[in-house]
Amino acid sequence: MPLTVDQLNHASAADFVALLDGTYEHSPWIAERAAAARPFKSLAALKVALARVVREATVDEQLGLIRAHPELAGKAAVAGELTAESTNEQQKAGLTACTPEEFAKLHKLNADYNARFGFPFILAVRGPRGTGFTRQDIIATFERRLRAHPEVERAECLRQIHRIAEIRLNDKFGVEPKLGQQLWDWAAELAAHSDTEDFLTCTYATPAHTAVAAQLMAWMRDCGFDDVTRDAVGNVVGVYHGTGEVSTQQRLLTGSHYDTVRRAGRFDGRLGIFVPMLAVRELHRATRRLPFGIEVVGFSEEECQRFPADFLASSALIGRFDPTWLDGTDAAGVTLRDAMQAAGLPGTFESIAALRRDPSRYLGFVEVHIEQGPVLDSLDLPLGLVTSINGSRRYTGEIVGLASHAGTTPMGQRRDAAAGVAELILFVEQRAAAVPDVVGTVGMLEVPSGSINVIPGRCRFSLDLRATTDAARDALDTDVRAKLDEICQRRGLSHTLQPTLAANAAPSDAAWQSRWEAAVTELGLPLHRLPSGAGHDAMKMHELLPQAMLFVRGGNGGISHNPLESVTVDDAELAVRAFELLCQNLVAQSRGT
């Protein structure tokens, strides 16, 4: 019989440890300490509690846990000395059927890894989907992580151990995260549509982009949405009607974007479309309607990768689409209007202006999104509550000095443009670090016609300044621009600075944030509140409707805008359940219960 949370809550301390035997390799101390945190509200709560014990353990205890694990395809596996759980996992990954070449490669990697870090390489070989990595995937991951910093790698090993434990607990409890699996599979299938073959890239109004829209529409119809359309800017819109008169009922608006950056991951944006789609599918299968409708928008453009039009798709819904954008061109000289029309869209301002939503028809806007950062991953938490989306200011700039001979120009007589930018970079780093939730980045640097023996006469750069409040952002902006002036005056340089983006902060609506918090609490998870440093469609919808966001933990250290971006099926499942609970709580509020 599968294990239950109720059994664990009522077991003696000794039985509690015995029931969880094998969850963490040869480390019963984790269960012993977690027993004190009972009662657990859910399996998810148990997982978080076990991970917390490890996070709060000493470094020596953490290293002991890591060293309790066997090498992949190592001597213990060959000798048949693995635990039953490890044997099963390595068999499912095909590590017991390595070719001689693969075995030799893994043997060498194990030796190199141990020599560098002093502990074995740990990988949850059943992976984020739960069905297993290929041997090629395992070797590629091994090679990548061998280059990591020791402290970073120790933390990653612990996270992999928690994933191994999570899968083992699912087996013990007879749990299969089917909604999360469906979300993961949708993301994989959608990633097949790309502008390029080598990496996922899906930019606005390309054939791949149009194919993604068509696939989303097909899936929405399969999920049971009543109306599915592609609007004048390419947004995919699915509506699931509530009870009562359709023409007058209010709706909950939700969704995220389906375009991507270049060399993207699979979950940025698209996760926030799939989550409400699955919630609607479950409602439809249960033949259930809510007192309000659910409108899911797959925003066609958020990343600003092809055309100079920020938040093109969500701007149309709030009535802020700039008609001059239609004449903007991409790198190939194609206008936005022509690209729209080539993709089967009208390409007229009149059709776009008609998309503006009437705020009186909507309860609010909520968005589910992968965190795109390391915070939740470092805390071993699957979900987080967004308090505010950072306001930002962006610039492109250039410092101009004097290109001169690197050997004959004395250090005190140089007008080095790159040195001026270098000084600015350090100031941005120090100034931003001095204030909580403030960040500053110089992400692009270029010395035109640079040469190894020439003092840089020009240096181009970018500035990205962000903060949770407009006041903090503007104070950073003022200080950075003043420092730029001072640097150039002192060094005998000149500069230009061109604004490219100014976006106001979007604090979460208190009522909607509390609804997300209630849903997360009901799942048995602790609440963790954090700002979003990235921009989202929600920050535009904020101008029309109250909004709040839910973050989902990203794997691989929380990396995003990268092919390594990942979520587990278990975390995806929790995100869907949280959205369902938010809707249920809205129903209860509408009935006054």
UniProtKB/TrEMBL annotation:
Q: For this UniProt record, give its keywords in alphabetical order, as a comma-separated list.
A: Hydrolase, Lyase, Manganese, Metal-binding, Purine metabolism
Q: Which CDD domains match?
A: M20_bAS (cd03884)
Record has Manganese as a keyword: yes
Its Enzyme Commission number(s) read 4.1.1.97
A Pfam family: OHCU_decarbox
UniProt entry tagged with the keyword Lyase: yes
Official protein name in the record:
2-oxo-4-hydroxy-4-carboxy-5-ureidoimidazoline decarboxylase
